[in-house]
């Protein structure tokens, strides 16, 4: 799970920022990064993301784990793209040739994905899930989507637990996974049982909700207030964005 | 407060769980429902709450006949139902929000709801749990918090489905204390007769 308790309850100034602001900025910046096609601008975004991540004081070990995961896919890109992308040849290895455009392209993907990942980790995982849900609600995101996210988050680990229980019960009765019909059948039953249990649980949760007077609307507790820190952050963000814009357009 | 006359109910129209069943709960009564597994204790609670509809017979709650879905909306607001599995009941992220869910549905303001939360948490001796994440609680704590959430609606009657199940000794003690402290009449289902004797004043046997 990307939301980790230790990250959620940190004490850095990024943790103190208004969750609404963090969501909006993460969303906009992720878009900007995804749309940028210029190497220098991308490096600049990565630099900004690194500054954010350093300031959020997130555990380095956790950070590396997440980054290794995403960069594993990027390594695969580096293996294929430079050889297959059409363009000017840089180097010939036997029958294969590396193109400059290919390297350029792979580099861009690397910069993009890493900076978006760092951005998301620094801005979004520094909230608790309930804060994010509240913030989405205040941002007027469609309620159905929020409920979906919320219930998935709330019941995912219960379904996982249910799965573990069932699976352990299978193991307790000497189940060994092999390549035969019995194994496939058992797994199919396991998944079917999980579906039935989830369905039943959803009914029970709904019953519990209407027993407590639920009439179709959630009311959230916390109210957010924009603080001085938030305004400073917005100003800082806008300045950093305009800096690169001015620099690249040659306005200075 | 609750009167049931000639109630019949079956899930499949063949095997009747209740046939001409009669039951009544009066003020200040604390009734233990005793019976084997599958004899219809939970079904009975669901019939009272209107989650299931009876095939025939009458259910009268708070001196009014209850038949249609709309009739049961008031019932659900005035009867507190503690579910057997607390994971079904606690679904909001924090304890505070979950306990406040009922009061807010009843139209209380946020400030009032917050006050109720701290009152009820104090009542069940779980002060300081407001910001805790519900699914990280232990099974016993979940049950007590779920109970606080039911009490937060200030119900007139309580239906308690296995409140002692999967609780450790300490939580059971706590539960008994709470049950002897509250003023409401209640119907309780449990298989533990020793514990039932400590909190009820009459019993019904279901067959």
TrEMBL record, chain A:
The keyword Calcium does not apply. InterPro entries: ABC/ECF_trnsptr_transmembrane, ECF_CbiQ, ECF_transporter_component. It is found in: Cell membrane. This is Cobalt/nickel transport system permease protein. Keywords: Cell membrane, Membrane, Transmembrane, Transmembrane helix. The chain crosses the membrane at residues 23-55, 67-85, 116-137, 229-247. It is a multi-pass membrane protein. PANTHER family: SLL0384 PROTEIN. GO terms for cellular component: ATP-binding cassette (ABC) transporter complex. The keyword Transmembrane applies. It comes from the Bacteria. One of its GO terms (biological process) is cobalt ion transport. Coiled coil: none annotated.
From TrEMBL, chain B:
PROSITE patterns: ABC_TRANSPORTER_2. Residues 2-207 form the ABC transporter domain. Keywords: ATP-binding, Cell membrane, Membrane, Nucleotide-binding, Translocase, Transport. GO terms for molecular function: ATP binding; ATP hydrolysis activity; ATPase-coupled transmembrane transporter activity. One of its GO terms (cellular component) is ATP-binding cassette (ABC) transporter complex. PANTHER family: ENERGY-COUPLING FACTOR TRANSPORTER ATP-BINDING PROTEIN ECFA1, HEAVY METAL TRANSPORTER. Belongs to the ABC transporter superfamily. This is Cobalt/nickel transport system ATP-binding protein. It comes from Halanaerobium saccharolyticum.
């Amino acid at each position: 799970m990307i939301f980790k308790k230790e990250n959620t309850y940190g004490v850095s100034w990024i943790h103190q920022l208004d969750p609404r602001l963090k969501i909006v900025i993460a969303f906009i910046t992720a878009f900007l990064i995804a749309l940028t096609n210029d190497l220098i601008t991308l490096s600049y975004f990565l630099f900004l993301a690194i500054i954010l991540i350093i300031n959020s004081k997130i555990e380095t070990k956790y950070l590396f784990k997440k980054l290794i995961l995403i960069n594993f896919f990027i390594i695969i890109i580096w293996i294929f793209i430079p050889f297959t992308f059409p363009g000017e040849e840089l180097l010939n290895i036997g029958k294969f040739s590396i193109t400059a455009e290919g390297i350029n392209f792979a580099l861009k993907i690397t910069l993009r994905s890493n900076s978006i990942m760092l951005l998301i980790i620094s801005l979004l995982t520094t909230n608790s899930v309930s804060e994010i849900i509240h913030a989405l609600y205040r941002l007027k995101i469609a309620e159905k989507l929020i409920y979906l996210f919320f219930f998935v988050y709330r019941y995912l680990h219960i379904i996982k637990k249910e799965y573990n229980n069932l699976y352990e019960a299978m193991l307790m009765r000497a189940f060994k996974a092999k390549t035969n019909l019995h194994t496939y059948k058992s797994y199919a039953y396991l998944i079917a049982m999980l579906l039935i249990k989830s369905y039943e649980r959803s009914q029970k949760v709904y019953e519990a909700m209407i027993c407590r007077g639920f009439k179709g609307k959630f009311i959230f507790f916390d109210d957010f207030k924009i603080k001085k820190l938030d305004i400073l952050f917005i100003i800082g963000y806008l300045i950093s964005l305009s800096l690169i814009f001015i620099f690249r357009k040659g306005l200075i | 407060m609750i009167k049931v006359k000639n109630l019949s109910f079956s899930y499949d129209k063949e095997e009747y769980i209740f046939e001409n069943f009669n039951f009544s709960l009066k003020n200040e009564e604390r009734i233990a429902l005793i019976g084997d597994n599958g004899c219809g204790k939970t079904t009975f609670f669901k019939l009272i709450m209107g989650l299931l509809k009876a095939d025939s017979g009458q259910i009268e709650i708070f001196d009014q006949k209850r038949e249609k879905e709309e009739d049961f909306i008031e019932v659900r607001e005035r009867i507190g139902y503690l579910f057997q599995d607390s994971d079904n009941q606690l679904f909001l992220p924090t304890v505070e929000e979950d306990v406040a869910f009922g009061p807010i549905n009843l139209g209380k303001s946020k400030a009032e709801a917050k006050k109720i939360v701290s009152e009820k948490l104090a009542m069940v001796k779980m002060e300081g749990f407001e910001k805790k994440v519900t699914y990280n609680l232990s099974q016993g704590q979940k049950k007590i918090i779920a109970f606080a959430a039911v009490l937060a609606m200030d119900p007139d009657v309580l239906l308690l489905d296995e409140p002692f199940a999967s609780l450790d000794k300490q939580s059971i003690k706590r539960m008994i204390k709470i049950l002897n402290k509250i003023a409401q009449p209640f119907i309780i289902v449990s298989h533990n007769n020793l514990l039932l004797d400590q909190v009820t004043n009459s019993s019904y046997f279901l067959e």
